[in-house]
Write a structure and sequence with these properties.
single chain; mainly alpha; Arc Repressor Mutant, subunit A; 3-stranded antiparallel β-sheet; 5 helices
C-alpha cells in the first residue's frame, strides 16, 4: 500500500544522517565505506542506517566483489514528491479562495467607510446634531 510505503519513507527521511546519505547518493552510487567517511559513526551504525534506507526502498545495496555499493532509487523520493504535490495543490487552492474572501471584505469595508464619510459630510451640510439619538437641533 502506498500510504505504508510513504510512512516508511518518511521515517527513513526523519533522520539527519540518512538524509545526508541520500544527498550524497543523489550524486551517484557510493560504497558503504565511502558513505561512512563523512560521519563520526561506527561502520556498524552506518550499516544500520543503510539497512533502514534499503527497507524503505530508497536505496539499493549491491555487491561488487568484496565491496557493497549503494545506489539511490529516485522513484521512492518521487513518490513522496507526488504525495506532497497533492497537498500543495490543496493549500494553494485554499489560499486562492481565502484571498477572494479577504478582497471582498476589504471592498465591503471601503464601501462602509465611504458611506460613513458621506454621512458625516451630509451632517456638516445640514447642521450639527445636538442629541445623542442623532436628531438635529431646531433652528
Amino acid at each position: 500500500m502506498v500510504v505504508d510505503r510513504l510512512g516508511t519513507t518518511f521515517a527513513a527521511l526523519s533522520d539527519a544522517t540518512r538524509r545526508a546519505m541520500i544527498e550524497r547518493l543523489s550524486h551517484g552510487p557510493a560504497s558503504v565505506h565511502g558513505l561512512t567517511e563523512p560521519f563520526a559513526l561506527s561502520q556498524q551504525m552506518i550499516s544500520k542506517h543503510i539497512a533502514y534506507l534499503v527497507r524503505a526502498r530508497i536505496v539499493i545495496k549491491t555487491k561488487r566483489g568484496r565491496e557493497s555499493v549503494c545506489t539511490l532509487r529516485p522513484e521512492a523520493i518521487k513518490t513522496v514528491r507526488d504525495w506532497a504535490f497533492n497537498y500543495r495543490r490543496f493549500w494553494e487552492e485554499s489560499f486562492d479562495k481565502l484571498e477572494v474572501v479577504v478582497n471582498q471584505m476589504k471592498r465591503d469595508q471601503i464601501k462602509k467607510d465611504q458611506t460613513k464619510k458621506d454621512e458625516a459630510s451630509d451632517d456638516k451640510k445640514h447642521g450639527e446634531r445636538d442629541r445623542a439619538d442623532g436628531r438635529y437641533k431646531n433652528f
